[in-house]
Amino acid sequence: MLSQSSNLVRTINNQEKYLRSSVFICGSKKLVTNNQHFDYPSTTLRLRSGQALRASAQCKQQIKRLVLDNGITLMVTENPTADIVAGRLFFKNAGGRWETREQAGLSHLLAVTLTKGTEKLSSAEIAERVESMGASLGTDAAADYFALSLKTVAADFGEMLKLVGEILRTPTFPTTEVELEKNLTVQNIRSQQESPFNVAYQGLRDAMYPQHPYGVSILGEETTVTQLNTSDLQQYHQTYFRPDNLVISLSGRLLVEDAVKIVEEVLGDWSAPPGGYPQLQLPRLEVKPCRRVEPQDTQQSIVMLGYLGSSVKHEDYAALKLLSTYLGNGLSSRLFVELREKRGLAYEVSALYPSRLEPSQFIAYMGTAPENTAVALAGLRTEVERLCNVELSEEELQGAKNKFLGQYALGKQTNGEIAHIFGWYETLGLGIEFDNRFQEDIAAVTPEMAQTVAQGYLKEPYISLVGPEKSIICS
Amino acid sequence: MEKLLEQIEEISFPANILKLDNGLTLIHQYMPTTPVVVADVWVDAGASAEPENWWGMAHFLEHMIFKGSKQVKPGEFDWAIENSGGITNAATSHDYAHFFITTAANNLPNNLSLLADILLQAAIPDDEFYRERDVVLEEIRGCYDDPDWIGFQALSETIYQHHPYRRSVLGEETDVAQHTPNQMRCFHRTHYQPENMTVALVGGVEREDALSLTTKVFADFSVRSECPPMVVDAEPPMTGIRRTEIYLPRIEQARLSLAWLGPGVERLEDALGLDLLAAILAGGSSSRLVRELREEKQLIMDIDSDFSLQRDSSLFTISAWLESERVEQVEEIIRSRIAQLQATPVTELELARCKRLLCNDYAFSTETPGQLAGLYGYYNTIAKIELAAIYPHQIQKFDRLTLQRIASQYLSSDRYAVTILKPC
User: Fold this and answer.
1) Quick one: which of A80, B142, B220, B237 is 20 to 30 A from A130 by CA?
2) How distant, in Å, are the alpha carbons of A213, A244, B311, B355 from that of B314?
3) Which of A:183-222 have CB within 8 Å of B?
C-alpha cells in the first residue's frame, strides 16, 4: 500500500504501551507517512553483534553485485526463508545534499508527488495497483540519496517492478497533485514545531550548517516549498533519474538470474541522457560553537549538544561511531547509567551520530524537568568532555564494540533491512565491502585512538535548549 | 472463540506450546536459518491489574525489574546483555507487561537465566525505587508535551467510563509519587507467578534445549502475596455522542478522533472484521476516507483508522489531522460514511484488496524471531496463542454481508466518543 494500514499484528506495536527506554522517533509517529521526515538517523545503523552472530549472519548473506549495460547497479541477496521480496531503488547523487537552499524541500516534494501520475496511469490507478497486490511502495528523500522501497510476496515482484519502472521513467507531476502536496508539506513543516525535540534539533542543525543543505529539514521551509512548481520537479527528475545513477538492491525469495531478467526487461532499454551531471557546490563548514535558546511553555526542557563530526568516508568515522555508542547507545551506555540510572534526571537520554557523506553531527541530548535544565546541561557536557580528558579502559571500549557489532548484525534480519543496508553502502560509494571493513575498523579502535579523535572533534559544543523561558535562559 | 479454536486444528501451527509443571507456558519455534534467539516474557500484569489508587504501578514495576535481584546488581543485567551483543527492552500496556532480549544463540543460557532471575526475584531496593521514580515522572512529563498522546488519553477517558482502559498506563504524577516499595513488592509477588507468565522462545534454539533451559531458570518464584482486590464496574452503554474538546497552546494542527468500542477477545471473529473495516476506511491511498478527504476534497492533512485489540473490549478509532475550521465538516462526513457502511455492503473489489493487504501485511510482520515471539506472547497473554496463526485464514473468510453486520453491530453514526484538539 502507499501509506500505513492497520492490522492486528502491527497494532500490537502501535498500541498505547510504554517502553522502558524509548526508541528514537523524530516527529509524531502518526504524521509520518513515508518515512520522509526522518531526516534524522532512523535509517542509519541500528547496529551489530557478538562474534558468533556476526560470523553466521555473514555467511548467509551471499550478495551478488553486477552492473547492467546502461549503468544500473543491481545487487541481489537470495534469501528463500520467507515468501517476500524487498527492494530499495536508490538514486545516488540525489536527495537533500544536492538541493540549493533556495529550493530546499524539492527532493521531498518529488517523493510525495512521484506516485501521483504517469503518462499512462492516474494517481488513483497507481494506488489501486499497488494496494490490490497487497504490496507496499514508499518513497524517501534523504540527505544523501533519493530512494523507493517496495515489498511484495515473491510472485508479485515482476508486476511490481513493471509499475515502478513506469513511475521512475514517466512521472507527470500533475499540477493539482503538486499543489495539494505542497499545501500538505507546509502543514507538515508547521507540525514539526509541535515536538520540543524537533524544535531543539532544528536550532542545532541551523547553527551548525549555515547555508548548507544539511542545515534545513528535508521537508524544506515554508518559504521555499511554496515557490516550487511542476517544472522544478520535471527538471529534477530529468537531472537525477537516470540509469547510471540508479542502484537497485533486492533481497528475498528470488534467484539472481530471475532478478536480472526482470530488471533487464523493465529497465534495460532505459538509456542515460546525453549531457553531464551538475557540479556539487557546498559551502565550507566551520566550527563556530554557539547557543540557541527557544523558550516554550513545555513540561520538559530539551537539552541538546552538537559537535561537527566527520563524513562516513573519513578515517575518523569508526572511532566517532564507537564513541557515540559508548556514550549514548543503549541501557548500559555511559549517559544512560550516569544521568538516568544513577541520578534520575531523564527518561530519554541518548547520543547519535548519523552516517553521512558530508561532515555529520555528533549529538548528545536529554529531556528533563525544567528545574534540572542547568544540571542536565552540565552533566551532558561533563560526559562528553570526559571522552577528551580520560582514556577509556580496554574493558569499557570492548563493551562498546560488542554492543555495536551485535546490534549491527541484528540490524540485518529482515529482507527490507538487508536490501537497504547493502544498497545504501553502494549508493554512498562505500561498496558492499564496507560491511566487513566497517566492522574491522570498529574492532581496531584503541583507547588511545578514541581519545585522540574525541579531542579532535568534541571540544566545544553547539548548544540548543528548548523549554520554559526561566529555566533555559539561566542555564 | 470455541468455534475458532476448532478451525485451528486444520491449520498447521509452526510453534510448540508447552505447559510446564509449575503452570508456566512456553511457546517455542525453532528457526534453523538464524543464529539469533529472542526470548520474550509476557506477564499478565498490566495496568488493568492495578488495585484502586495503585495507578501506574505495573509500569513502574516494569522499570524496577531492571534494578535487579539479590544475585544481579543494578545495571548488571543491561551490561551483560549488551556486552554480549544483544538487545533488551520492556513495555507495559493495560493488558500485559513484557520483557525481551535478542541474543546470539550461544549466549542464550546465560542471558535467559539473568532475565528469569530479575523477573522472579526482583529486589526493588528502596533507594533505587525513589531514584527510578524520578525517571518515571520524566516519562510522564515527556508525554504531556506530545499532543497525540494527550488526544489519545482524552479519547480513552471519554469512551471508557469505568474500565481501567480509561486511565493512562503511566499513572498520574500524583499517583506515582505516593507509591511505596512495599506496595510494589506486593504487586510483584501477586502477579509475577508462573500461571501468569508466557515465555516465547523463537529462533536458533531447538526444542529440547529451549524446554530444559526454561524449566531450569523459571523455577524459583517469589513467595506469593496478595494485592488488594481490584473492582471493575460495568460500562454503561453509549447512548449518544460523548464529546470532549481540548484547547492546547503549542499545536499547529487540530486533531479529530472518533472512537467506538469493539468486542473483547472472546469474539475474535468480529474483532478481525473490524480490522478489515479499518483498512477499508483508511488503509492506504485507495481507501475510502483517504481518497475522499485527503485526495479529492483536500480537507485534511492525514487520516488513520486503527483497530486495537484488547482483552475486555477493543477500540476502533478514526483520527484526522486537519485545520480547526474543518473539524465539524469532516466529522459530518465521517459519520455519513459510517452510516454508509451499515446501509450498503462494501464492494467485492475493495474487500479483495483489503484482504490481500492485511494478509500480506501479516506475512511481512512475521519475518523475524522478535516479531514472532511478540505475536505469540501477545495472543497467549490476552487470549489463546493459537489465534495468532488463524489471522490470515480468518480474514480470507469474510464476505460482504458479514462485514455489513459487524459494521452495524459495533459502529454507529450517532453513538460514539469524539475528542477534538484545537490550537488556542
Assistant:
1) A80
2) 46, 51, 7, 20
3) 183-184, 187-188, 190-191, 193-196
